[in-house]
Every structure is written in structure tokens, then in C-alpha cells.
Design a protein that fits this description.
7-stranded antiparallel β-sheet; 6-stranded antiparallel β-sheet
Length: 311
């Protein structure tokens, strides 16, 4: 499969911050001491503060459930919605805690596929099997974190032990898909899209499916789920009018659902006005809106967007 044009490659390569409905949970106590020796203050949903002990960290993954939620169990392949704070075991210069990232300051949980290699191994192994509403502390050795290759530009040193507090907000199951009523009176020049529920949709280009000169979006299935919020959890398939082939898909190995806001694709916000979870939209991108190194004159494409969740 060829490299997808930049428009959707950007979406597939980015996990945006999102939120979702919460679940019932208890409260974690102030300055709870964990198996790893780390102390954690604050309650589920609040930005925690961590105290790192004056000792060497374990060279194995240490998982401490600070608050056990009463929601569903997290399964491999789920799209996980969580708040988190991450810092290294060793302090930064000046003995200050090296907090390298947290979602609490953004006031929005993050979303990602869990248990399938989309995140570091310590997250995959430490969070699958936990329950929604849980606050979990992870002490992650280097070989289950970033080892000697931390993200470029981060304050994480090579070989660092990572410490995370994770509040599990919600999950969207791997079997989530479209559900609703086929839209009526569709334009005659649309590509043909087939597929139901959580199956990967297929896109074909009959002779009547001519590229558009102005990018636009059309609802194919009117969803019957909850009302849409500002951010969507979606699965997508992108296909080319030129090659008649699929170029990128959320169903590809190592990928999964992603998040986007309706203004990230042309006409999507207008098409989704009044729609619900379960909606399927076909976005047709004009060549002029998809100029890439591979196609310097532009390439017309079609993107199927299945809305499987929202906040």
C-alpha cells in the first residue's frame, strides 16, 4: 500500500486530545504510598503530585491501582480515553520533578488504541485489564518505555524510568461501528461505498464517480447514537480517484480509531450538523486541496469517515 497523501497521513499519525463521558469511582487518599515507593496525592480526575523515593527504581514494570473503578474492563484493542501525568524517576536539573507531559493542564483526556503496540509497552501491559474509573500508577523501566530513544524534543533522558499516573475515563470497544439509516437523495456522482457495522468499508469508482472541483462532504448513513460533541472518535478509509485503490485505513495493522474535529476536513462540520454517533460521511477532496510531493499537481481522493464516538 502506497504512502497516503499528506492530508490524511497527518490525521493517521496524530493522536489528538479528546474527552468522553466519565464513570463512577472512589477517591484516592492524599499522599498514598505505592508498591514502587512513589507517593501520590490527589483524587481521581485531579492533577496529581508525585513524590519519588530516594532509591533505585525497579527494573520491572510496577503497577499500583490507587483507586479501583467500577466500570467495564479495558480490553486489548479498545480505544482508551484517559487523563495522565508522566514524569521521570530522576529529577530535572535543580532537583525539580521532571514532569514531561500531562493532560490535566489541557483539561482534556487523551485517546489512543491500547494493547496493540500504539503506545509504549508499559502502558499496554499496565492498563489492559484495569477498569474504567480507576487511577493507576505505572513505574515503567526503560525497556518498556522509550529505552535509549525518547521522543525528539522531550525532556526525557535516554534510559529513563518513567512514572505515570493514569485516570481511566472511558473506552470505546474495537467492535464499535456505524449504525443508523441510509441517507436518501445522494448525489449521482458519488463513489460507491459498501460495508456495515464495524467492518471496513470498501470504496469503488464507477464511471459516474467523477472528481469534484470543490471539496465537499455527504452523509451516507445517519447515525442513531448520542449527540455529537466538539471532538469525534472515528475510523477512516482513504481511496484515490486516480489509482482506484485504498491508500490508508484505520483497519490497517498497527492503526486504529483516531480523533478529529469536524473542521479538519472540508465540509465535514456542515455535513455532521444535527447528526449523531454512528454516522458515516463521504468526504470528497478536490485535487487542488491535496497537493503533495507524490502528486505535485494534486490528487483527488475520497475519505470515508465512520463516527464511532464523541465528547
Amino acid at each position: 500500500m502506497r504512502k497516503p497523501p499528506a492530508l490524511v497521513a497527518l490525521l493517521l499519525g496524530t493522536t489528538l486530545a479528546i474527552a468522553a463521558c466519565g464513570s463512577d469511582s472512589g477517591d484516592s487518599g492524599d499522599d498514598a504510598t505505592t508498591e514502587s515507593g512513589v507517593t501520590v496525592s490527589g483524587e481521581f480526575g485531579d492533577k496529581p503530585e508525585l513524590g519519588i523515593p530516594d532509591q533505585e527504581p525497579s527494573d520491572e514494570l510496577v503497577v499500583d491501582v490507587l483507586t479501583e473503578g467500577d466500570g467495564d474492563e479495558v480490553e486489548a484493542g479498545d480505544f482508551l480515553l484517559a487523563h495522565y501525568l508522566g514524569q521521570t524517576w530522576e529529577p530535572a536539573e535543580g532537583d525539580e520533578a521532571n514532569v514531561f507531559d500531562n493532560s490535566y493542564d489541557r483539561d482534556e483526556p487523551a485517546g489512543f488504541t491500547i494493547g496493540q503496540g500504539s503506545v509504549i509497552t508499559g502502558w499496554d501491559e499496565g492498563l489492559v485489564g484495569q477498569t474504567i474509573g480507576s487511577r493507576v500508577l505505572l513505574s515503567i523501566p526503560p525497556d518498556m518505555g522509550y529505552a535509549d530513544a525518547p521522543p525528539e524534543g522531550s525532556t526525557i533522558e535516554p534510559g529513563a524510568t518513567l512514572v505515570f499516573v493514569v485516570d481511566i475515563v472511558d473506552t470505546i470497544g474495537a467492535d464499535a461501528g456505524v449504525s443508523g439509516t441510509p441517507a436518501a437523495d445522494l448525489p449521482a456522482d458519488l463513489p460507491t461505498v459498501a460495508g456495515e457495522d464495524a467492518d471496513q468499508p470498501t470504496v469503488e469508482f464507477p464511471a459516474t464517480a467523477t472528481p469534484v472541483t470543490t471539496s465537499t462532504s455527504d452523509v451516507l448513513i445517519e447515525g442513531d447514537g448520542e449527540e455529537l460533541g466538539e471532538t469525534l472518535v472515528v475510523k477512516i478509509v482513504q481511496a484515490s480517484y486516480t489509482s482506484k485503490e485504498t491508500q490508508a485505513s484505520s483497519w490497517d495493522e498497527g492503526r486504529g480509531p483516531l480523533t478529529l474535529t469536524p473542521d479538519q476536513l472540508p465540509g465535514l462540520a456542515e455535513a455532521l450538523d444535527g447528526q449523531k454517533v454512528g454516522t458515516r460521511v463521504l468526504v470528497r477532496i478536490a485535487a487542488a486541496d491535496n497537493v503533495t510531493e507524490q502528486a505535485p499537481n494534486g490528487e483527488p481522493i475520497a475519505i470515508v469517515v465512520d463516527v464511532i464516538g464523541t465528547f
